């Protein structure tokens, strides 16, 4: 298949390249190739002649979205609308990458695929707008929600590794809970999904969930650091955006198709080993 990937230079875009490149003809679209958020995006994407479009490109700076919600909506909402319109012209299914932050975080158990969305911040609202545009405009689509993504050069895991190497103590939020997710595992799941006609909404996250504090503790433990961690509350961590406190995702729909995601701890171990061996950046950062 000819597969167009937006945001091809991001951590999920790069994982998709590694997963799909050996068996498919990839059309890689970065910022310079696609005016996401502009109507021109429709013609630019339609001109690729893609059989499938995978759309991870987004404005993902959550605090930046809070500061400029109009930009967030233009890129994540309208931008996705334009991508969906291009898919209509192409007659191609769309894989839209969404987020756990479409949920409000008031639940006490992981969210299923068709639980009611209730985003509480600008980022979540803009990604929910994208979901609605996909559902309104297309008959063939896979909406794939991910969370707490790691696997590239910039993410929570990398930040904790860097800080743990520099400091003796770190303060981490203990009452924000989510689903750590390894980008290569998401890419593998998407590779399986696009071979099926089972369109709909999916949660592709590694199994299990934890707090930011527990996530950091496991990172430090696996990397062999002795850095002390102090738990703090979300209320004590000042930032521009409001954060949904509990947004683990349950993988029910993909599991029904035989797409199972391993525990996040196992995925983390593979990622840290790759960093230590210099596989990801060409040199070890630990």
Q: Keywords, please?
A:
alpha/beta; two-stranded parallel sheet; NADP; 12 strands; disordered C terminus; NAD(P)-bd_dom_sf; Rossmann fold; six-stranded parallel sheet; dTDP-4-dehydrorhamnose reductase activity; 286 residues
Secondary-structure blueprint:
Elements: E1 2-6, H1 11-20, E2 25-29, H2 40-46, E3 52-55, H3 62-67, H4 69-90, E4 94-99, H5 122-137, E5 141-146, E6 149-150, H6 156-166, E7 169-173, E8 177-178, E9 181-182, H7 183-193, E10 200-203, E11 210-211, H8 212-223, E12 228-232, H9 253-256, H10 264-276
Helix pairs in contact: 1-7, 2-4, 4-5, 6-8, 8-10
Enzyme class: oxidoreductase
Pathway: Carbohydrate biosynthesis; dTDP-L-rhamnose biosynthesis
Pfam families: RmlD_sub_bind
Task: Explain what this protein looks like in three dimensions.
With 286 residues, the chain is an alpha/beta fold. It is built from ten helices and twelve strands. Helix content is 39%, strand content 17%. Helix 6 (156-166) packs across helix 8 and helix 8 packs across helix 10 (264-276). It is globular, with a radius of gyration of 18 Å.
State the CATH superfamily name of the domain at 2-153 and 180-207 and 242-261: NAD(P)-binding Rossmann-like Domain
Query: Ends: how far apart?
Result: 39 Å
Structural class: alpha/beta
Which regions have little confidence, pLDDT < 50, spanning 5+ residues? 281-286
Could you state the order of secondary-structure elements as H and E?
A: EHEHEHHEHEEHEEEHEEHEHH
Strand count, sense and closure of the main sheet?
6 strands, parallel
Tell how many strands the DSSP assignment holds. 12
CATH class (first level) name of the domain at 2-153 and 180-207 and 242-261: Alpha Beta
